[in-house]
Amino acid sequence: MTNDIFETAPDVFERQADATADAHRRLQDAAEAAEAKREEPDAKPQTGARDYPFPPMPDQHLDKPGLEADQALAPMWQAPHYKGSAKLEGMTAIVTGGDSGIGRAVAVLFAREGADVAILYLDEHEDAETTVRAIEAEGRRGLAIAGDVTDYAFCRHAVDQAVKEFGRLDILVNNAAFQQHLSNIEDLSPEQFDRTMKTNLYGYFHMVKAALPHLKAKGSIINTGSVTGLDGSKGLIDYSTTKGGIHAFTRSLAGQLISRGIRVNCVAPGPVWTPLNPADQSDEEIVHFGEKTPIGRPAQPEEIAPAYVFLASPQTASYITGEVLPIVGGY
Questions:
Q1: What range defines the domain where residue 222 resides?
Q2: Does some domain include residue 24?
């Protein structure tokens, strides 16, 4: 019995190899011709209901904690194309860091969906007043409470004040944060490390402890994480550490509270145009903010806020708990 493969003449294999090489070159020529004719796509794709600004961003540096009223390019938080549909009707919420940025946008959309909203903030009184007016313009009650979430006594006071004002508490949004870039860990002082930990982790812990006695079944907690908690950031070692901790805190707490009917989730944004970043980076650095995302720009707060509505509402997220939702402008 013979094996045909061994009886094939060597020149047949050579001809087959030559034909395959010719096919490779034809495919190469076709691809190169197509690339030569290809027009570069728009480097600034607009993907939203309205157009958003691309870098370069204003070369402006703000003093901490950052006043939105002072930003040369105002963050876009009004979400004029977002139509409320009573997803949070009759509910009440607390949003820490609610005076500006993501917190303000979340507070306004919560109000548009039917919730009364208390915002917590440090000393950005002008920003806080603007946010409360915006909540009230949506036909809901707004309340601004100044204080420091690193202080557990303040957190208890703020929750008690909100519950006294609104009669109940259904949603807690932990959003207040401290962030400061540093290039070298040798320059990261224990004082800064402690401040970042106390604000971003202790603050969330304190607010949850204070809010839980008032949260009932169908209530929810939403934490603000970060892409830095997923990918790390060499210039934000302390901040990234806290954001990774917030993601773990979210998943651990979700497992503990689901038996009470309370859902716990997290939104992990990429770069967002808020006062936090111009108050952190130099004016030379901030002009490039967000340009390395696939979309090519930072998000505006109104683009992030609907995720909080989605996660807060029992109508839309009743089967979602322990999730970390990245909104990072692509991969």
A1: 88-327
A2: no
- What total number of domains does the chain contain? 1
Q: Distance between CA atoms of 26 and 38, rounded to whole angstroms?
A: 18
| Residue among 82, 239, 319, 331 flagged as catalytic | 239
Q: How far apart are CA 80 and CA 97, in angstroms?
A: 22
Q: What share of the chain is helix, strand, coil (3-state, %, to 5)?
A: 45, 10, 45
Q: What is the CATH number of the domain that holds 166?
A: 3.40.50.720
User: Residues with Cβ < 8 Å from 6, sequence gap 6 or more?
Assistant: none
pTM given for the model = 0.91
Rounded to an integer, what distance in angstroms lies between the CA atom of residue 171 and that of residue 88? Answer: 10
Q: Tell me if 60 is assigned to some domain.
A: no
pLDDT at 42: 72
With respect to residue 73, please indicate whether it lies within any of the assigned structural domains. no
Radius of gyration of the chain (CA): 26
pLDDT digits (tens, 9 = 90+) for 193-251: 999 999 999 999 999 999 999 999 999 999 999 999 999 999 999 999 999 999 999 99
Distance CA(141)–CA(137), nearest Å, equals 9
Residue among 311, 281, 293 nearest 52 (CA): 293
**Beta pairing, strands 220-224 & 324-327:** unpaired
β-bridge pairing 171-174 and 142-146? unpaired
- Catalytic site includes residue 82: no
